[in-house]
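Tutorial handout. Part one gives the primary structure; part two gives the three-dimensional structure as tokens.
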Amino acid sequence: MATRRKAAAKSTRKQKKTPVRKAARKTVRKTKTTSKSSPGPAPRKRATSTIRPTSIRPPTQAGAALPIRPARAASREQRIGVVTHYYSHLSVVAMQLEPGATLRVGDVIHIHGHSTDFTQRVESLEVNHASVAEVGASDDFGLKVIDHAREHDAVFKV
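Part two.
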């Protein structure tokens, strides 16, 4: 018995869209006018070499550099460490203390960096998620801060 074949479907071909043609523009060239009474600004003259007055400065020594910032009061603050990491979701800094430095709860510290400058009292110190009252140079610890701090910011004890 013969099998029946499906009838071929009619092919519906989509018509291609005709591209839009841009209207031809006529280009008009401007000609230079050589009349002497032109309303535009007059052409600039070339500057001749002139001597400009300069301020007289005293001679400086070759090795002496001008200070960029005023000197800090060293007697009031002493550098105790550097911020190694800042955890923004906790507002906590990880710090590395300099050898011989200690930090206690209740001390007043000043954190200073390129875009950071704030002073605060130490409220919380933690070593391995356990609160402690004092940390030394060999401890890896976290310190709760009141403002954003950045890596490499200097920490001073006031």
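Part three, for discussion. Residues 62 and 68 are 17 Å apart (CA to CA). The domain at 85-157 is CATH 2.40.30.10 (Elongation Factor Tu (Ef-tu); domain 3).
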